[in-house]
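Consider the following assembly input.
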Amino acid sequence: MTDRYAVVGNPVAHSLSPRIHAAFAANTGEDIEYGRLEAPVDGFVRTATTFFAEGGRGLNVTLPFKLDAWRWVDAHDAAAAASGAVNTIVLDGDRHRGCNSDGIGLVRDLTDRLGWELDGARTLVLGAGGAVQGVLGPLLDAGCAGLTIANRTREKASALAARFGVAASSLDDVGTGWDVVINGTSAGLAGVGGLVPQQAVDGSRCYDLFYALDAPTPFCEWARENDARAVSDGLGMLVEQAAEAFRLWRGVHPDTAGVAESLRNAAPP
Ligand code: ATR
């Protein structure tokens, strides 16, 4: 029988995960079906419980449920435990194991696809919300040096920095000379121009944890205009975190080459 998986979120209609997992199923020959589940904002537990009771084999979890999922599962893998967020649920017998593949996905995209050296790279991370929490541990494991978290609300940066034993800063005082700058703030078009001083990205490799299929994200556009050495949005991270989830469920790591590009090429003009 075909094993059923899904992504649960709200909203979830535009999630690319079903297309990514369909590509993985095709290139590995695994017999899976992968759908979307929109849960009411207060209904994660009900939706997840029903999905597994009806024979579902695993879930991806997206906004705003990563914390609800962390609380609901029976056990955590090391990445989920360190980050306090769950984006993948694996069924172990009748127990639900909460995992977090976001950070591994980011590091694989940065190193394997983009070829950015992280070992010893001076790294600045903008933002201190859930997206950032999920990636700090794997960035440190990959050897990022002098890692500094800068956030609009300085106390949140300090609290998170203390948890991970790294430095904190205000956005307007981040200094210069960063090898890698990672945006995890949700500042949109209006906010991104003044997010950090231009000198912070001059000559740096800049990565946005967010992505857009049809145009550069505001952060990517701003970084390029301000002399970043290289720029990428987070579409590749989305693909790599999905690949790691697929491996956790099926025991086989799918080939990710070209998947992000095919999603972008298939986007409506
Ligand atoms: P997520 O879980 O997606 O990371 P979040 O927890 O709401 O979302 O965090 C959003 C991040 O974007 C925060 O770091 C937030 O800064 P504050 O902690 O000061 O709220 C940051 N952010 C959102 N809008 C911003 C803006 N206009 N300028 C700077 N930072 C912004």
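The chain has a mean pLDDT of 95. Ask yourself how this observation constrains the way the partners meet.
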